[in-house]
Amino acid sequence: MTALILLVGIVAVPAILAGYIALVEIVLRVLPEKRQPTLRPWLWMAPALLFLTVFLLYPTLNTLYLSLLDAQSTVFVGFRNYVRAVTNYEVQIAFRNNLLWLTVFSTISLGLGLVLAIVTDRLRYQSAVKSIMFIPMAISFVAAGVIWKFVYEFRPLGEAQIGSLNAVLGVVVRDFRPVAWLVAPFANNLALIAVGVWIWTGFCLVILSAALRAIPAELMDAARVDGAGEWQVASRIVVPALGPTISVVATTLAIFALKAFDIVYVMTSGNFGTEVIANRMYREMFTFQDFGRASALAVILLAATVPVAVANVRQFRRQEALR
Asked: Are 297 and 276 in contact, with CB atoms under 8 Å apart?
């Protein structure tokens, strides 16, 4: 079965696309020559547009429709599911936690990535250092959640601590009492966010470092000759020059923060006050079998991420226009 799937993916799909392109060119020859340049791009993009319609546009519109129905999608209830989404206490906790992710996770990941990009820019073995820091990004979010769940593992006082964090702190800090990091209300959300920071800091570092290398070295050297310190060079030359790249990276982090799910689901399943919107949507759909409420949360999540994505696209277009 696996061999058949590979055969279809490697041979059949490219063959079908090649046949489609050949058919398009045959059809275009029949049409008036002046209309061919206008129709050719649309005909070439038709399979992709069909794919997007079937797997993106239709599910989005259908989800919007289901959000206006009851739990079993049989009775029209209007905006009742949306009203519940903004008034229910547990859903409000999810909104609060997503806001926490959006602010803390995005700020720390971007800040650390920027600082590390500037610091490692002059290292002799910077490529190796950046590769090591980027490794967490190659790990799936589920695997990262499993790894860090062991790091945060808790055992009562007096027992051997198998969690790395409690074990290290027990050696370093005198009279340290083990902490249930994934249960304690003051720490659990920040502990989950730390996992996201661990994964995404390497991504921020690599992107910002590439943009940093594009800044003319003569510009920074001239500032140093004029008496500017390293802090002034970084704050008045490097950061403004990296502005467009920082904006793109920040919007990417914001989208991830709004859609955070894997880490929370694997490590706490949204318990102990760590619920986020995506996890609540999953629970409404598959635990409570309430398709209306789950669809309403999906629409709210989409509405929250679309403006960020649009801002990202506009920033990219402005950046391309300046080149």
From this structure: no
Helix (H, G, I), strand (E, B) or coil at 142: helix
- pLDDT tens track, the chain, 323 positions: 666 777 766 777 778 888 888 888 888 888 888 888 888 888 888 888 888 899 889 999 999 999 999 998 899 999 999 999 889 999 999 999 999 999 999 999 999 999 998 888 877 788 888 888 899 998 899 999 999 999 999 988 888 888 899 999 988 988 889 999 999 988 999 999 999 999 999 999 999 998 888 887 777 778 777 777 777 877 788 888 888 888 889 988 999 999 999 999 999 999 999 999 999 999 999 999 999 999 999 999 999 888 887 877 777 777 666 65
Residue 41, domain member (yes or no)? yes
pTM beyond cutoff 0.90: no
Whether residue 130 contacts residue 113, with contact meaning beta carbons closer than 8 Å, is answered with no
CB 291 within 8 A of CB 68: no
Number of domains in the chain: 2
Please report which helix (H) or strand (E) contains residue 255, including its range.
Answer: helix 243-258
Gap between the Cα atoms of 223 and 230, Å rounded: 9
Are 240 and 296 contained in the same domain? yes
Residue type, 61: L
